[in-house]
């Protein structure tokens, strides 16, 4: 099957070749692709891959497909993977035209929850480029691509392709890695409207090739189980493929329950390393589960529809053997989790069968969104019956482990997870805590990550080696991060190394590794802060945001992958500096205190990011500025004003337990999402600020900045004369009174107080600035601007304090 999957991956390579030339050779993309493959493979002595060339050349030849089952299978997979094109476009005539150099619209372009819905919601277009740490910005108007740019992509792809092809059998997983790197921003087809942007191509060539291979491999295994391994020799299989009343597919959903309690209950020395280790353990657990299922089923990474945020979706064949693999995997991993963590974590795996009609664009009938919804419902039902397969273990007697009583200075339990029925020991050589084996492994994993992503480490060049030992072990597999691939099987972390079995995007950034360091490395008041943030209305977006005919498998997959890429990959570059990525040209970021964040990065740590949400912690100023940057970057990335974020920021003493930060930030996020009518807000320094007002907050902070200057002795600011801290505190007091929700006083009574406060200033020293300040303060809107002033005054005062008693 491997050769067939590779043919699925490469069947449209001719499109890149044709677009890389001025004009075209008169041949279709099938012939051009076969010619290109034949020449490259013969040059490196890989003629054994001729079957791939044959399938690529004939994948649009309907007559040949009537005789060759494998070719018919490729054509079927290609047709279903392009199901989003089953619209009024037809053969690209009438209101449509071919434009080889049309750019790719973002997969978010067609999303809208408005009623009535706009006819052509939010056209936005990504540039033609390879995937890199630089966050792509969606343009409102399409800018045509060029043959030169396609030629550059093809040349770079060819180098990587030859490297993995000549070093052994062409691995589908390794091929998938370089396809994602070079073809994620290439449109899969270029039939565009003559006027306007409705039905503009929004599925990348990478997403199309990946889904073609996933569908083809599922059909292959489904037919193989039904008719035996020689099915490809029998023509009756071609008739079988035309039978639309069957359900060859299952959509598999995986989810972890207990994640919140597992991550956020840490309260100990070395908390940041333990937090990072626990968060990444969950990532590894899901990847381990996915790899186990795919390996036992004989499938490849193309069948991973989505993985992130403690969830995954897989496309598998609707066969008894596949169901058996899923049942066994769920049972064995949950048994392992029970032994390791008792009732903290549980893996849920469910699935839903469906037929080919789900892949096709249609206004009526069963659509992809319906299948995803059914899987979600089954997952929720599964969570309501926790540990149903471990019931017998629940009633086994549990006794305190002798080590919890006998260890020197034993606290009676592990100092991180507080379990007392497991072996604990004093890890004085490392963290100087008494830990159980599981918590110590997680701490070591956090330290392993620190070694690969600390200061002066490239965030985009490390590897995850998979072996039999590693820093942390899941079942019988060991995992360890390293600067070089040390084993035959490895993942490339945040980069696309030829030879890697997978591209693994990770929220890897660590600008600080000990919360206690904030006293030395933070700015202003030494306060720790946490940000929790996620996409607004995501459930409704997938359920109602697309027109029925737009709810195709390809589009839902592309939207999910693109969101995950923002939170797991691009978030790193929004926070890092050149110390973490040599030669990096950071985007414009909010840098109110004029620090060297472009070089050093922000003093924050990504605790968790993926799917559609994030949790970061660090110095208060960096967290607040980063939150504003993330909102702006997400808007630029999606190009859709209806796709928004809401978040909550919590501040507290450095020694406050992490779970309290998580709880307070979560409560702040809930307040932001309560903002009506459309959420899209940030809870910051005690106020809910609509995201569209964040630019006004920045302007207000910048207005006050001219009255401040750096303190040459401390990492803080000081006021210029004639201002005093008392003046700022009085402004803060007025802002607090004006923003009280229960205060029904006439706001105008505050104007004399503001005027009196201004009259106390030395006009001679302020000169012209006095009138500017007076006019500005007295003209501020009581309902909107003074809420911003409340935030700004706290921000400024905290920037001026280095100690709690100042």
TrEMBL record:
Residues annotated as domain GGDEF: 526-687
Top-level taxon of the source organism: Bacteria
GO molecular function, one term: transferase activity
Cofactor: a divalent metal cation
TM helices/strands, residue ranges: none
GO biological process, one term: defense response to virus
Key word Nuclease present: yes
Assigned keywords, A-Z: Antiviral defense, ATP-binding, Endonuclease, Exonuclease, Hydrolase, Nuclease, Nucleotide-binding, Transferase
InterPro entries named in the record: Cas10-Cmr2_palm2 (IPR054767), Cas10/Csm1 (IPR013408), Cas10/Csm1_subtype-III-A (IPR052117), Csm1_B (IPR041062), GGDEF_dom (IPR000160), HD_domain (IPR006674), Rev_trsase/Diguanyl_cyclase (IPR043128)
Keyword Transferase listed: yes
Family, similarity comment: Belongs to the CRISPR-associated Cas10/Csm1 family.
NCBIfam families: cas_TM1811_Csm1
Protein name as catalogued: CRISPR system single-strand-specific deoxyribonuclease Cas10/Csm1 (subtype III-A)
